[in-house]
Amino acid sequence: MARRIIRADFGAYLRGRRAMMAPPEHPLGRASRRQVPGLRRQELAEAAGVSVEYYTRLEQGRAPRPSREVLTSLARALGLTDAERDHLFRLAGELPPEPLAPDSRIRPGLLRLLRGLEETVPITVHNGHLDVMARNAAATDLLGPLANTGRYRRNIVHQGFTAAARGVLGDEGVDSYARWATAELRSAMGRYPDDEHLRSLLAELSATSAVFRRYWAHREVAAERSAVKHLHHPTRGWQTFQSEMLHDSERDHWIVIYTPAG
């Protein structure tokens, strides 16, 4: 029964999106005589590279579950956004495609949030490659400035195996962070298995850190998104924060917010 509901929703979504498509212009600029809006089934099928008979069965919920290649072609023919394409995949019972790389741009609204809380709430943003993209002044004041040089100076995993991290986190905290960071790297490499930046980071840490090698052998995958952290401020001493990691899945950006605990 659940399979029929999914397939019916899938067909209804195709029909609805097809109806929203602008029909091709008449070669002589004449007005269209169409009685219904959008593209005809044959036009959409041709754009997607499938037969009109197969496409008709998809809309009617009578075809076997389409392959990922067909779903990708349908999404392209319908002009779907990434979020709409992902919805189409889910309706077909498939996991959405993984992005090839995180987005290189931060949402303007998020940047305004960082600026609005510039001096009050520490906030950082890093991407799926685990590189810091932005910090507000409060975060820099709490966590210290990023290193001035080095290929991995913005990488939150690499930062966990530096002397600066021990100064902020203390002996116990830096060990917990190293374990978490190693699991984060494994998660990121599962998402982007062919990414050269992540592979080179793995090679660097494997060659230089016995602590990293020990935790990497555990084969843990990061899952913790909420934690209580004890951080050493350069002038205020030890402070306790509740950190929350929020995910912008469309861009694969992570927003980390630190609020005073207790």
Descriptive key words:
single chain, 262 residues, alpha+beta, 434 Repressor (Amino-terminal Domain), Beta-Lactamase, 2 domains, 5-stranded antiparallel β-sheet, 5 strands, elongated, disordered N terminus
Map the helices and strands:
Elements lengths: L1 H18 L21 H8 L3 H9 L7 H11 L3 H10 L16 H9 L6 E5 L4 E4 L1 H7 L12 H4 L3 H29 L4 H13 L1 H7 L9 E8 L3 E12 L4 E8 L2
Helix pairs in contact: 2-3, 2-4, 4-5, 9-11, 10-11
Describe this structure in words.
- Residues 34-85 form the HTH cro/C1-type domain.
- This is Helix-turn-helix transcriptional regulator.
- InterPro entries: Cro/C1-type_HTH, Lambda_DNA-bd_dom_sf, MLTR_LBD.
- By secondary structure, the protein is an alpha+beta fold.
- It folds into two domains: 2-91, lambda repressor-like DNA-binding domains (434 Repressor (Amino-terminal Domain)), CATH 1.10.260.40; 108-260, 2-Layer Sandwich (Beta-Lactamase).
- It has eleven helices and five strands; from the N terminus they run ααααααββαααααβββ.
- A five-stranded antiparallel beta sheet has the order 2-1-5-4-3.
- Helix 2 (41-48) crosses helix 3, helix 2 (41-48) packs across helix 4 and helix 9 (163-191) packs parallel to helix 11.
Radius of gyration: 25 Å
Identify the CATH class of the largest domain: Alpha Beta
Largest sheet: 5 strands, antiparallel
Mean of residue pLDDT values: 90
Helix content: 40-55%
* Lateral arrangement of strands in the main beta sheet: 2-1-5-4-3
Proportion of strand residues = 5-15%
**Which ranges are low-confidence, i.e. pLDDT below 50, for 5 or more consecutive residues?**
1-5
CATH topological fold name of the largest domain: Beta-Lactamase
- Count of spatially separate domains: 2
